[in-house]
Amino acid sequence: MAAHSRIARLAAALFAFAALTPAFAAKELLVVQIAPLSGPQGVTGRAIGAGARLYFDHVNAGGGVNGTPIRFVSRDDGQNPETTVRLVRESLEREAPVAFVGSVGTNNVEALVRDGALARSGTPLVGAVSGASSVTGKPSIFIVKAGYRAEIARLFQQLGQVGQKRVGLVYQKDALGDDVLAGADAEAGKWGIELVARAGYERNSTKVEGAVEAMLKANPASIFLGATTLAAVEFVRQYRERGGFATIYGLSIIDSQVLLDKLGPEVARGFAFSQVVPPESRSVLPLVREYARLKAQGKQADLGARSMEGFIAAKALVAALRKGASSGPEAGKAMAATRKLDLGGYSLDFSASDRTGSNYVDFAMLGRGGQVVQ
User: Could you tell me the pTM of the whole model?
Assistant: First the structure.
């Protein structure tokens, strides 16, 4: 009887060990991207995710974060805000990720703010792809680039200084467009700029015919596109085909490489755009050299002009995780405590609750043969 009892206890102990061993072996830090991977904004979601994965793969190749590997998964929300909220809620409840990365769209991020589940969990969303003032500084939201208002302020200053004072606005009819219009109204008077036309297009679409017609009729010297990538591509195509000659400036969310690839160098030539993360051409920066080296070593699909933003978000998150954070709330606190984090010539600081983590804004233009001219 005693022997049978010892065998039973040994069997129970072995069973318990076997049950625990796989969990120990599978220990990981789960990072989730909820973003559009299909539809008009799919190009952005995939590019942001590719940049993040590039850095996470590099970290895992070096042994992970303090010895723990990162598992990165991307899920498609079709840029539908309700789907974004549902998928984030499901992930929080079923998986308890250490962080979310690279959700795309002002309306989508606003929906997460209104829902409140993300904030209540304390889990951070790092590198949210929006620069709107409506989401800046909200709990658990960490934006790793300058805001839209900062972009508009710099652009209107430049336009005013060079004398291009008749400006047309093309905007997406949603929270993104609202922020663009508010920023333009706030800055125009400072630089003697007249907003001669405003034309919107429907969210998550490329139906820009009405906007093209409005800009041709108003004949501004410059047009500012507060638009997403594929809508911007279609606007530039139609506007140029119909003889429009104004200088076109694009918001940073427009992927200039995709625009160039789809339009070709002749049509795309002269398209100017703001840059809120360092471009690959700025090889003087250690961050850019690191990105280029890892990009050359790997075979990561979907890397594009927007991928540096995802790379920066991943790098910032890993810096927070290296402080010992192993849960969503711990990672959220570590991100909020980020002060003057130098990622290699590009710094982040979340000490000011009323702004994004960076104020870097620059401009570039597509020149002859598709070359990027700073």
Answer: 0.86
